[in-house]
Amino acid sequence: MTATTKAPPSAPVPAAAAAQANSGNAKAISWEIAKFIGSLIISFFLILVIWWLFLLAFPDIGPIIGKTPIDVFHYLFTEPASATNRSEILDNLWITLKDAGIGFVCGMGAAIIAAALFVMFRPVAQTFMPIAMLLRSVPLVAMTPLITLVVGRGVAVVAVMGGIVVFFPALVMIMTGLANAPKQINDVIVAYGGTRMTSMRMASLPSAVPALFAAAKVSVPGAMIGATVAEWLGTNTGLGATLQQALPAAAYNELWASVLVITVASIVLYAFVGVAEKLVLAQMGTKPT
Predict the structure, then answer these.
(1) Do 100 and 158 meet the contact criterion of CB atoms below 8 Å apart?
(2) Do the beta carbons of residue 170 and residue 162 sit within 8 Å?
(3) Distance CA 117, CA 111 (A)
(4) Cα 11 off chain centre by
(5) Across the chain, where does the E strand assignment appear?
(6) Where is it found, in Gene Ontology cellular component terms (predicted)?
(7) How many Cβ atoms from other residues are within 10 Å of residue 39's Cβ?
């Protein structure tokens, strides 16, 4: 009777192993995204609680001026005129979102270009960075009359004011990301005859992607603030104009509802950028800053 020998277990099929790895990565990314969105939802409810506690801590504000989250809910959803109220606020929100998008694109684009120039040419950074920080210290409200005088009250004032709010924090964060590119990669590029632009394109920019997303997350709420200020003081449109007009008209329900809608829109935009960050960085195999 001959003994039979067992064949050694076959190695896992590479395709199956890759599918398992991809499935595990997808679950990990989904879990990270779920935690991120969950933390934002908790933060939103904390904002509502703080809002309520603030009104309780200062009863002198009174129910006529100080509206609670429930009052705003009734204004937007249960009152007889709630459909009209929602329509007006959503129409103004769309204007504010477009203005915020203009400011965000202008500010981020200028910050990326300026950061690249400052990293590639140190004398330029030493010359203009103090000027940029000096301008950053001037309140935006104080510069608004001069800005509107120079560029008018149209889209240009939205681009300038929104861009100013976005530009300065994004500039610092993007410069840090570009400057932290691996020196060994830069040395190899230079050794093969690469220029500063080649080093920036092939080494600095890819390594700065986490910093770019971090700057974008910070800049999205800033763009909403810049758009609101530009509308309040410049264009007289959108939710910024609604806030301005609601105060003298004693339309406090509309005022508080507009503030809540701006807050929710900022959180949603922040969440959108955060989810995009996690997906892109997971594909690149890097971690957020």
Answers:
(1) no
(2) no
(3) 10
(4) 47
(5) none
(6) plasma membrane
(7) 12
pLDDT recorded at residue 15: 59
**Nearest CA to 162 among 240, 261, 264?**
240
Confirm if 216 and 257 have CB atoms less than 8 A apart: no
168 within 8 A of 223, measured Cβ to Cβ: no
Look up residue 200 and give its DSSP letter.
I
pLDDT of residue 1: 46
With a CB cutoff of 8 Å and minimum separation 6, the contacts of 186 are: 199, 203, 204
CATH architecture of 24-284: Orthogonal Bundle (1.10)
DSSP 6: P
Q: Quick check: 101 and 223 in contact, CB under 8 A?
A: yes
CA dist 141 and 188 (Å) reads 48
pLDDT < 50 stretches in the chain: 1-2, 11
Residues 185-207: pLDDT tens digits?
A: 777 887 877 777 888 888 888 88
- If 0-12 CB within 10 Å is exposed, 13-18 middle and 19+ buried, where does residue 49 land? exposed
Residue type, 84: T
